[in-house]
Amino acid sequence: MMPSFASARATVRRGRVITLLALAGLAAVYVLALDYTPVELHQGLAQKIFYLHVPAAWTALLIFSLMGVVSIVYLWLHDERLDLFAEASAEVGLVFSAVMLTTGPIWAKPIWGTWWQWDPRLTLTLFLFFLYVGYTALRASIHDPLERGRFSAVVAILGMLLVPFIHLSVYLFRTLHPKPVVLKPSAPSLPPEMLRTLLIAFVVCLLLYLGLVMMRYGTGVAERLREAGGEAGEVADAG
Amino acid sequence: MPVETPANGGYMTAAYIVAAVIYVTYALRLWLRSRRVAGD
Fold first, then answer.
1. Any residues with CB less than 8 A from the CB of A186 and at least 6 apart, and which?
2. pLDDT score of A235
3. Of B7, B21, B11, B20, which Cα lies nearest the Cα of A28?
4. Are A209 and A96 in contact (CB under 8 A)?
5. Is residue B3 part of a domain?
């Protein structure tokens, strides 16, 4: 069942407030990273890219996993809201992936001496990014909503299967990419200031995801209702 | 022998600017799109 135009509008408004809060939080993360965390002895200031790159990567992988789960439920229930939520999440997930894929090479250049290495972790992450670009392109090319929902759900589920490989790739293959310092079987191996800042940055990324996805979802619902001529009915109801 | 910390602050600045530009540009673009579609 589709939400009403008024409720889509309310979702957009709430999303805007949360996005503004999250962007303010992001500014606070910048201040924390620059002022509060220590400078790493061997990597210098470039190490502080970690507070942007890692939370963006975690959020992107979390979003793509969530999309996979939502898509499974969509194939089962055929609820249009789940399809619209997956669509909104894909777009926002691409934004976090873009941050991950740009900040990573900027860190790699001074530390590894090269912008990019075709190593398993980096290559798989790039594949995942292209998969979701493909997901968005697929959605744009199919006009029938039922067919679009079904096909894109299958792609999202296949994309979700890549996520554990990406996380485990640093253990499964020989790779230049650093091993996890937090999401590992033993306790996090970071000084407390670094760990605190990293976790705060992750919470801010989650909040930003929530705000952006609410704005995108509400906009998607409003667009769908406009296409179906639902807005006229809603306006008439409101009057 | 003491370890000398590398001077690579320019890369950090570049990454922070790039990330802010990506997040803010998308948020702004979405804001404008939602205004056009959902009114307000």
1. none
2. 47
3. B20
4. yes
5. no
Q: How far is CA A76 from CA A2, A69, A150, A154, B39, in A?
A: 17, 11, 10, 12, 33
Residues A84 and B37: beta-carbon distance below 8 Å: no
CB atoms within 10 A of CB A64: 26
Q: CB of A36 within 8 A of CB of A197?
A: yes
Complex ipTM > 0.90: yes
Query: Cα separation of A44 and A125, whole Å?
Result: 26
A42/B5 CB distance under 8 A = yes
Which of A23, A98, A219 is facing B27, going by the closest CB pair?
A23
CB < 8 Å to A99, chain B: 18-19, 22-23
Per-residue tokens: A175: 């790779």
Tens of pLDDT, residue by residue over A96-115, are 999 999 999 999 999 999 99
Q: Tell me whether residue B5 is in a domain.
A: no
Compare all CA atoms of chain B with the CA of A18 and give the residue at the minimum distance. Answer: B27
Choice between A168 and A236, residue whose per-residue pLDDT is larger: A168
Q: What is the DSSP letter of A35?
A: I
Q: Which CATH code of 3.40.50, 1.20.120, 1.10.260, 1.10.8 fits the domain covering A5-175+208-230?
A: 1.20.120
How close A89 comes to chain B (CA, Å)? Answer: 13
The identity of residue A60, as a single letter, is: A
On whether the CB atoms of residues A234 and A5 are closer than 8 A, the answer is yes
Name the domain count of chain B.
1
CA distance A236 to A79: 26
Distance from CA of B29 to the nearest CA of A (A): 10
